[in-house]
Structure formats: C-alpha cells, structure tokens
Amino acid sequence: MSKDFNQEKETDFLERLRPQLGELVAKATGGTDEPLVVEMLLEACYFLEVSSAKAAPLMALEQDVYTQTGTYHLLVRRLSSSLPVGKFQILINRELASGLVH
Q1: pTM listed for this prediction
Q2: Rg of the chain over CA atoms, in angstroms?
Q3: In whole angstroms, what separates CA 98 from the centre of its chain?
Q4: DSSP single-letter state for residue 69
Q5: CA 4, CA 17: separation in Å to the nearest integer?
Q6: Peptide bond into 35 cis (omega under 30)
Q7: Residue 75: beta bridge partners?
Q8: Which residues lie across from 56 on neighbouring strands?
Q9: Quick check: 28 and 67 in contact, CB under 8 A?
Q10: CA–CA–CA angle 91, 96, 101 (5° rounding)
Q11: Ordered per-residue pLDDT tens for the chain, 102 residues
C-alpha cells in the first residue's frame, strides 16, 4: 500500500473499478471468466493512480498476461485531464497464436 493512499481509500478505489473491469474483460474474452486479467488490470490502475501524485508520474503501463485460454496484452493509460480523477483507457488484445515462420 502506498503512503498516498490509506487503506479505506485504496479499498474504495479497487471496489469501484472491479465490477467495471470484470465487465470489460468479459467483453474482450467473449464471456470467458479471466480473474487473473481483472487482477492485473486492477493493479495497473492502482499503480498509475498512486503514481499520479509523484513529481514524475507514469501515464501508461503495458503488460502481457498468460492464462490457460491464451495471452492477453494489456495497455492501461491514466487520463490525466479527466474529471473526476481516476479514469483509465484500457486496451485488451488477445493473441491465441503468434510467432515468426520461415
């Protein structure tokens, strides 16, 4: 937990985002339940929100999440000019197979 977020503020933030992220992941996966993807998105949003109070805040994070159903590439960007604060743009890209062939 960050010094900038107390426990109650952190819990409220995560609980506000969790249902929205669950719906977004279900939409991206065609209804497949992917709790690991939801948790990774929650962590990214929280990290970006805490970072926003720093002198040089991060604006975006990218991460690959590997699950039994495939690989998900996540791009999470904090919208710095949003009112109220705490809005994020999220892109979920799924690759079932990729590689280089000769």
Answers
A1: 0.83
A2: 15
A3: 23
A4: T
A5: 18
A6: no
A7: 62, 91
A8: none
A9: no
A10: 115
A11: 455 567 888 889 899 999 999 999 999 988 888 999 999 999 999 999 888 888 888 899 999 999 988 889 999 999 876 656 678 999 999 875 666 677
